[in-house]
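Possible regression after last week's pipeline update?

I re-ran a chain I had predicted before the update to compare outputs. Posting the input and the new output here so someone can diff against the archived version. Not blocking, just want to make sure nothing changed silently.
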Amino acid sequence: MTDSAKTLCPYCGVGCGLEVLPPAGSGRATYRDSQGNPIWKVRGDRSHPSSQGMVCVKGATVSESLEKDRLKYPMMRDSLDQPFQRVSWDEALDRIVNRIQTVRLTQGSQAICMYGSGQFQTEDYYIAQKLLKGCLGTNNFDANSRLCMSSAVAGYIQSFGSDGPPCCYDDLELTDCAFLIGTNTADCHPIVFNRLRKYHKKHRHV
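New output (post-update):
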């Protein structure tokens, strides 16, 4: 494969456009890592309407999951002042099970909880609930999806009558006033913040 492919960043909800470049391409040298191995590269998609070629560190490093020297096995240590040691999958899973069982037996099932990722799909939530309720006997499950979106949806419905924001990224460059409430946009959604900052530099009254 020598052609690039366009896709979306899988992380936050901004949905930035990415262009994935194969190691070998027409009219250019092969991309290689420091050891000389061919590698895939990722860059921002300049034709994407929302991100306009910009990409944050999460999107810029997404190709690291394809690198040959990525971590493919568990590593453990007994204390913070010891180095990590490679262990087998069975040994790693046994330690996890033993730690959970110790908490369950000494403190009860309600001392166990799980905090799920915002990237979970419906099937992931189903399996997680089965593990916690059916196997471990606890209802203590929460996820970033609820913490982030359930409160946002409630606010959207009360404010706008819809469960989604009635605007698009282009509106950031048409506004006379922007409120950022309860958010660290510069760190959490830097591409959106950069668009707002670029507009502010041109229009200091905003």
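Follow-up from reviewer: compared with the archived run. The first helix runs from residue 57 to 60. Marking as no regression found.
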